[in-house]
Amino acid sequence: MYWLLGSLVIIVMMGVLAVADSLAIPINSSIELHNANSWPLLLVIIAIVLIAINQRQALSIKSVNVQKLSSKHQPSQPFFSQDTSKYFSSSSKFPIRIVNYLLIMILAMGLVMGSALQALMGYQQAEATKITESMRVQALVTIEGISDSVYDGVTNSGYRQVATVSHISPLISELTAQELDSAKVNYFTGIENSLSNNNLFDDTSNESSDSNIEYRVLLNAYPKKGAKSAQVTDLNQLRPGDQLFMTLTLAPLATSEQALNNPSGFDSYRWLRGRHIDGVANIVTTSASSFALDESSELEAASRSYLKRFRTRIDQGRWQLRQHFYQEWAGQTTATQQAKAVTLSLLTGDRSLINRDTKDLYQLAGISHLLAISGTHVLFLAIMLAGTVVFLLNRLYPALYRHIPRWQVCWWVMISAAFIYALFTGFDVPAARTAWMLLAIGLVRLTLLPISTMRVLLALAVLMAWFDPYVLWQAGYWLSFIAVALLLKYDSASQSQNNSVLSQSEKPLSQHDIKYSRILLIKVWLTGKRVFKLQFWLFISLLPITLLLFGKASLWGLVINLFAIGLFGWVIVPLNLLAGLCYLLWPALADSIWVLVSAIISNLHDLITWLTSLPALSEAWLYTPVNMAILLMVLLAMLPWLLPRGLISRWLALPPLTLLMMTVYANQQSLATSPTLYILPTGDHYISAAVLQYPIMDNEVGVKDNKAQSAKGSVSWLFLADHKPSATRTMPSTLTAEKLSAILEQQLRTLSIKRLEGLVVQTSSAGLTDTLTINEADNTFKPNASELLPMTVARISQRLPTSQYWQAGRSDRWFEREKIYKEASESNNAAHVTTKTYISPKSCEQNDSWQLPNGGLSLQAMTGWSKIDDASVWDCTLAIDSRLPIQVLQYNAADPLNSPLATSQLLTAIPSTAKNTQPNNQELTMQAQSLPSRIVVDADTHQRVWQLWSLLCQAEPFDNSAYSHHTWLGHSASHLATDDIKRQRINEVITHDDNALEAALSLNAH
């Protein structure tokens, strides 16, 4: 009952949050949000009453059974008295049992409905405080905790910090740092100024208009060139609790639907909502100085509780420890920096100094969980402190045990240390769970309640969801509780097996030494076997939830965790915690220990880098789309192992396991059953990527002649382009070749693409040629010299076998640039290549073509004239012709199987012979099905491309009337003209950036 009710409560709360967020339920005034904090206490009381009634009912049933057994052993009692006593007792208790069952049912339903209402109140409370529109303001900013990252212009790392903004007023004109400093002085002296009398949300009709509205935001500041860079660098010196005036650009949180544009599928909306962030704030200007908490304590004493001030003091200690590690940071090597950064992360949970490469290395090795502060860290420190206190008490004051039992002394020390250290590490879910479990288990022992550890774990999971419904959106919540539950379940099962084996081994032997050596060997063997089975059990059990949360899982984790967990748990973490304790008393000794820990971690990084760079073992990632149906089948397959042994036969796991394998295989095959063009998000507004998957049917003509393609089942082409307008100033791209290639590789592998037939870079790069002559006096066009896309090709072609590479423009320097790039990447251990072969580029020229032997699919270059000494006409636009209709989908990184159709503009002025644009048309005619379809993949960056194409079309008639439907795919910044659309008979327009194409709008207007 407990597990059923607890699971139902969590599922209902998740459903309410999901439905409320997807439907955007408006704030209901009938739900009093001020009762949201007291409502969990009511739920706790209901749960206690429910448990008490159920426990009493169980005890009464048990007592009846005991009476029945005792009556069998008392035959001297008269039969009539036995029979009447049985009758009267059963008849009198039967109505009571019915009432108890009804009461249990009512309380259980009330608990579930109350949990749903608590989730709804949590949602409405978040909606009431969120930022709804973008605005530029001036405000007082209060720093909360430590920053998520530090500002560093060398590594292009930005500053991200959770803060509270108050005294908000609209920004009428740009303010300097000196003007913000004067606002600080006025704030202290109480002088009326714009920060006090121009409240942005002043509403005289509202009774609470005098109260200042506060937002909890995520501050952002990224490296910029200019005079303000030095001032932004000073943000790293802000301590928790510091306050200063800033001019900000406030913006609402991106919705979960906008996660489609995130290349990795990371849902930043849910991540920020889980941290109770109301919006994001980009820093425009900051005041030259800030004031600490002590200076403003008199002003803020009434509004700041003691717990908040205590939390701020702890966060200041974390900040000071980070500053200690950050000393002389720029003068150290990258390896030393990252070893120290990981050491700091293992001590305080502060990952701000860890760079992207180190995080990727830990993800590839499958040991990212070791960077987080887990229950092991908290429990180890609690045990160390409790052992030290007990040792001192045994020596100095043993008489204390006359009043307080020894276990209670250990318990009080452990829970005090656990809560303080959990606060010191940010009080994340794993650390908080451990602290609360220590408290709960101690209370269970103190009150002698018959409650198992598994039930305590379930109760904590439900309690954390009641007090903070948005914790259900945190991946750490699920991984932490599920991992601990699996550990407890495995430990209870394996311990009994080990005991039975050891009891059999302890048979009387003739020789005393042989007996104990045999037992020692058996214990070592059982320990190693148990560790391996435990790691395998955790890996397999957590694999579905890992794939569901992150979309990929590292197969290296099964191997590297075997020694990494022991190294971290028994060497690195104890030494790190010991150094942290010594830092309070003897900082010099702590630094010496940290040097040793950093050296161990640095050597571990070198070992992992070497292992993960082995060519034979480079395929480390598992990409399998997982949905709730697959997760349910995994649960059914694991159910016989989760339940007590013998309750359900483990052979019953075969049907759901077989169905699971069939479903996973069917999902993989469904990705390539119909021609599909996926628009891949890259994270840059102007960098576009699209991949074409075209299945090859066994009954198609010509497949036998193409053995490589028929073996794969489909052919795939990847199209890349840089749509930055030549005449418009745009922000420089933050993408790098390493980052973009990693994004594209993950997306391609989730689509089951392991080989590319072709890779096309449709925009030219002047950095690949020395033969282009540019006369600044006569030619205003400045060609794109970025090598981002060509170098991305160099990396992708080493990870995925690629048959062809088409490059727009001239590429006479390609081999030189590719060689230099690969050597630099390999020297930095950043490229894990699978082959040393070099791919040769082919110039993408007009009329260049490729097609399947059966003619079912063909590609033809419509533009591209690299022989002309003008880079503005080098861009290569492609026409994809297919016998079968091609779907154009917007790739959904979170769920590739459910990628939606791309948003399109239907051109009513040009009717289609294949698709009727009227809503009542449901299917294609037989004639339209027999006609091929065409997709034009455009990549022009200058108007001369289509001007030259139009001139050539006048000289050579352009006829595509044989195609049933014509789709144009490009960027809204394209220079495509209305006449070009008419000439190509385009029926549908799709843009990479989801903005309307101007030529298409003007065509529909006419």
Structural overview:
This protein is an alpha/beta fold. Helix content is 49%, strand content 12%. The protein contains 29 helices and 21 strands. It has a 7-stranded mixed sheet with strand order 13-12-11-10-9-8-17. Strands 14-15-16-19-20-21-18 form a 7-stranded mixed sheet, with no helix packed on it. Strand 12, helix 25 (814-827) and strand 13 form a beta-alpha-beta unit. Helix 10 (334-348) crosses helix 19 and helix 14 (429-447) packs across helix 15 (453-467). The longest helix is centred in the first third of the chain and has 51 residues, at 79-129. It starts with a helix and ends with a helix. Residues 191-211, 295-303, 699-712, 776-781, 829-836 and 913-930 have low confidence and may be disordered.
Number of helices: 29
Q: Sheet with the most strands? A: 7 strands, mixed
Q: Report helical residue fraction.
A: 40-55%
**In terms of structural class, how would the helical and strand content be classed?**
alpha/beta
Radius of gyration: 34 Å
Mean pLDDT: 75
Estimate what percentage of residues fall within beta strands. 5-15%
Strand order of the largest sheet: 13-12-11-10-9-8-17
The poorly predicted ranges are 191-211, 295-303, 699-712, 776-781, 829-836, 913-930
Termini Cα gap? 68 Å
Quaternary organization? single chain
What does the overall shape look like?
globular
**What is the number of E strands?**
21
